[in-house]
Write a structure and sequence with these properties.
395 residues, alpha+beta, Cathepsin B, Chain A, 2 domains, 12-stranded mixed sheet, 12 helices, 34% helix
Length: 395
């Protein structure tokens, strides 16, 4: 009987050991579900999980960490991708300890990607396939065959990297890199000075910003694409027009209100008549909007700026959204010398962990993304800024 009891105890202990997860974020609190990690340093992975959980809690997001993955740019600078369920992703820049991009309500762009993953700044997510790289959002294939192309991308990524390191979170970097510091909640609080992100953050939004945040589906944003060819500049112009229509500052024909994709299609037609292709930056967006407003007898002004600080002024002082055009020096299979994407900026957050822009990416499901200022201000990411102003407002 005694031997049988001992055997049962040993069996139970063995089963418990086998059922333990590799990692369990949440030391010192209620046990959290396990997450997967491809980081070789398990202690570092656990620390990153605790650090990210602190940010998740501060914003009261109802999500949990499901995976922690290695990520790098085209210059070899290291990032860490934290994926969550049912939604949510966070991208940490290792050398600065700053979250360069995160969205609690959006699915990770890399969620379905199994190969080596690369990051070239906000909106630029790639999977390696031999000597080529696939944009995981648009499925276009990019090549870095020539030394000139590789050099341009390396310089682009290094400039963002240096911007981030210039204002690094030294306490976070020390916490993550020092093996002598435990991964406990108390250690995290001590290293970060016990700062409360929620209490040390001031957020400025444009008027009635939830009108933009709620534009999430393809129909709501007027999303339009032809195969692998996107029309983000036109989609961004659509979103800006309908934001002001929803605010009652301008009147659009009812068929645009009921069928937002038709508005995007008609903006594209205007662009084609002006000789533009699918990729338009701020100056061409401004011209398309001017022609559209003239056609529909809408009094409004649009102008192009080349200083991203104007975006902050528009948001904080003027309380108006604006469009930021981003460029990437990569040649695709069609021979285009650069890639471009347009995003809508409608919030600005200032906090102890750094300042962030709040953006709508112009993609379904990416209407509330926070981007570290270091990725935008003074970086090669921004090409130009479009300002649009209906009456009674003025520039």
């Amino acid at each position: 009987m005694k031997k049988r009891l001992i055997c049962l105890i040993l069996l139970a202990a063995t089963l418990l050991t086998m059922c333990q997860p590799v990692f369990a974020a949440g030391i010192g609190r209620e046990p959290a579900p396990a997450f997967k990690s491809d980081l070789k340093d398990t202690l570092r992975a656990e620390k990153i999980a605790l650090l990210t959980e602190s940010l998740i809690r501060s914003e009261d997001a109802k999500i949990r960490i499901s995976a922690i993955r290695r990520l790098q740019d085209f210059a070899g600078n290291e990032y860490t991708l934290i994926e969550c369920e049912p939604t949510g992703y966070y991208i940490l820049h290792n050398a600065s300890g700053r979250y360069v991009e995160y969205a609690a309500e959006s699915v990770s762009p890399y969620r379905e990607v199994k190969g080596e993953i690369y990051y070239a700044g906000p909106t630029w997510y790639f999977e390696e396939d031999g000597t080529e790289y696939t944009d995981v959002m648009e499925q276009t294939v990019i090549s870095l065959d020539s030394p000139e192309q590789r050099q341009a991308m390396t310089a682009f990524c290094n400039e963002i990297h240096h911007n981030l390191v210039r204002d690094k979170q030294a306490d976070v970097v020390a916490y993550l890199s020092d093996e002598g510091i435990s991964a406990s909640g108390s250690s995290l609080a001590a290293v970060c000075g016990g700062r409360d992100e929620a209490q040390s953050t001031v957020v400025s939004y444009v008027g009635q910003y939830t009108l933009l945040k709620k534009m999430k589906t393809e129909n709501q944003i007027g999303y339009y694409a032809e195969g692998k060819k996107g029309f983000c500049g036109y989609v961004a112009a659509n979103i800006i027009l309908r934001y002001w229509q929803k605010r009652g500052q301008l009147a659009l024909p009812s068929y645009y209100v009921n069928y937002p994709k038709r508005l995007t299609a008609d903006l594209i037609l205007i662009g084609k008549k002006l000789g533009y292709d699918n990729a338009i930056r701020a100056s061409k967006q401004a011209k398309v909007l001017q022609e559209f407003c003239k056609k529909h007898k809408i009094y409004a002004e649009s102008t192009t700026e080349y200083y991203v600080s104007k975006a902050i002024t528009e948001i904080k002082t003027k309380k108006r959204p604006c469009v930021i055009s981003a460029t990437l020096p990569m040649v695709d299979r069609e021979g285009h010398p650069y890639r471009s994407h347009a995003v809508i900026a409608y919030g600005y957050e200032e906090g102890s962990a750094g300042d962030r822009y709040i953006l709508h990416y112009g993609w379904p499901g990416y209407s509330f993304v926070k981007i570290d200022k270091g990725c935008i201000s003074g970086s090669p990411f921004v090409d130009s800024v479009l300002r649009f102003c209906p009456p009674p407002f003025k520039f």
